[in-house]
Amino acid sequence: MANSYLLGFDVGSSSVKASLVNADSGKCVASAFYPEKEAPIMAAKAGWAEQEPSSWWEYAKLSLKKIMSEAGATAEEIKAIGISYQMHGLVCVDKDLQVLRPSIIWCDSRAVPYGEKAFRELGAEQCLSHLLNSPGNFTAAKLAWVKENEPELYSKIYKVMLPGDYLAMRLSGVANTTVSGLSEGMFWDFKENQPAQFLLDYYGFDRSLIADIVPTFACQSEVCAEAAAELGLKAGTPITYRGGDQPNNALSLNVLNPGEIAATAGTSGVVYGVLGEVNYDRKSRVNTFAHVNHTADQTRLGVLLCINGTGILNAWVHRNVTPDISYAEMNNLAATAPIGSEGVTIIPFGNGAERVLENKEIGCSINGLNFNKHSKAHIVRAAQEGIVFSFCYGMEIMQQMGMDIRKIHAGKANMFLSPLFRNTLAGVSGATIELYDTDGSVGAAKGAGIGAGIYKDNNEAFATLEKLEVIEPVEADREAYKAAYETWKDTLNNKH
Predict the structure, then answer these.
(1) Roughly how many angstroms between the first and final C-alpha of the chain, as a whole number?
(2) Beta-carbon-side half-sphere exposure of residue 397 (alpha carbons within 13 Å)
């Protein structure tokens, strides 16, 4: 009996991952990623970061070949394709849909002055009330850099797109995009519910540069004969879902409703919450985009808080304070110090300017250290507490925007492997934490199942999502956690 599979791609800046999900069982049957070492990022000047879009295509092809072989799957068995991708990148193509220059990716900072100038000249009220963000260093500002610095190339641009739009274009031969994608590029006007004409006019962009808009969950296009021959897929296979990596991570954790939170804590940390009404932070300390299930009739916004100094601080402490023991042993050591680390606080912002601090760069600092009382355990615990407190600091901004945070979903990975980290986050926020086994390419495959109508809704698609652990706040410890957080906030406020 033939199987029915859903194919998901996740286009990251370090690799492209592909996963095959059995549509009936909901289980992932094969996954692979290329390259096995991190993909190169070109940096011709300081602050620049570029990648060749054609390399994403090659990595996708290699990953696909491996999972098809591993699963013993045939092209006819793939019923739909979904795509997750690194956000905020810029891909420019000409009338023949040929790429004109390397993609300026998310971590490239050359466009910062262009976004800041637009914010200043258009005004904070205009930008925030329509775009929900400052134009910042997003895709529109990157295109403004190209227009000013590469005018001859700019004149050849037929369409601009995001990395996920590019992969869909290579699969189908059709250029299109989504509202969610346009919003992350600062091309979407939430007041007018259409592309942001005022920003296009300001930068002098012709509206025709915006690709056709398709729904996030729907038959967006179909695999063309040329791509089918190159990849070993069936021509006509529908592409039915597309989402940026953070909205897609939230989808992967079944976070789609107001008040639900998806969190990750790798090298940097992200808290992504769903808001059910149009709102924004007046100081632009968090970013707000259309979530994957946002429509004109149903407001679903993804509020994204990014903290640069999370896992990188924990790794620094491990390397420099406890180099002779494992991470698990380090977590056990930290747990021997009491909540609040007996007055030691660590401000974790040692990995560049932080948006949550209005782009100030205040560095990392250890405070309240007493040589007669404190040990390694206090420093290790204070580092993990400091990371949690930075999350909570950002979550307070979300609450001020109207978000009622009761549940946090996360993958059981990175900092969420630490019981101390999890308990502190539950203790300070009062939220229940649920840990799951999932990843972005699997989420994209299930998104494809929703878009193709194979699943009637997200609950059916994620019915088999494996919940690994639930952490409830311990009421007896809540006051101690809150007191430690207030001490940390006092220390932070004295720093900036």
Answers:
(1) 64
(2) 25
Determine how β-strand 432-437 pairs with β-strand 212-213: unpaired
Provide the token pair at 11: 């286009």
The three-class DSSP label of residue 21 is strand
Calpha distance 299→274 (Å, rounded) = 10
- 283 backbone dihedrals φ, ψ, rounded to 5°: -100, 5
Cβ–Cβ contacts within 10 Å for residue 285, how many?
Answer: 17
Nearest-angstrom CA–CA distance, 405 and 21: 31
| 171-194 as b/e: b if 16+ CB within 10 A | bbebbbbbbbbbbbbbbbbbeeee
**Is 389 within 8 Å of 481 (Cβ atoms)?**
no
- 3-class DSSP state for residue 346? strand
Per-residue pLDDT in tens (0 to 9) along the chain, 496 residues? 689 999 999 999 999 999 999 999 999 999 999 999 999 999 999 999 999 999 999 999 999 999 999 999 999 999 999 999 999 999 999 999 999 999 999 999 999 999 999 999 999 999 999 999 999 999 999 999 999 999 999 999 999 999 999 999 999 999 999 999 999 999 999 999 999 999 999 999 999 999 999 999 999 999 999 999 999 999 999 999 999 999 999 999 999 999 999 999 988 899 999 999 999 999 999 999 999 999 999 999 999 999 998 999 999 999 999 999 999 999 999 999 999 999 999 999 999 889 899 888 999 999 999 999 999 999 999 999 999 999 999 999 999 999 999 999 999 999 999 999 999 999 999 999 999 998 999 999 999 999 999 999 999 999 999 999 999 999 999 999 999 999 999 999 998 6
Whole-angstrom CA distances from 147 to 144, 150, 204 are 5, 6, 9
How far from chain centre, in Å, is Cα 413?
15
Dist. CA 170–CA 165, nearest whole Å: 9
Conformational region of residue 266, where left means phi above 0, alpha means psi within -120 to 50, and beta covers everything else: beta
- Gap between the Cα atoms of 11 and 162, Å rounded: 11
Q: Is 180 left (phi over 0), alpha (psi -120 to 50) or beta?
A: alpha
Q: Whose structure tokens read 């996030």?
A: 216
**Is the CB of residue 11 less than 8 Å from the CB of residue 83?**
yes
- Contact yes or no for 152/300 (Cβ under 8 A): no
Cα–Cα dist 39/460, whole Å: 35
Report yes or no: 266 and 414 within 8 Å, Cβ to Cβ. yes
| In contact, 246 and 87? CB cutoff 8 Å | yes
**Both structure tokens of 71:** 């699963």
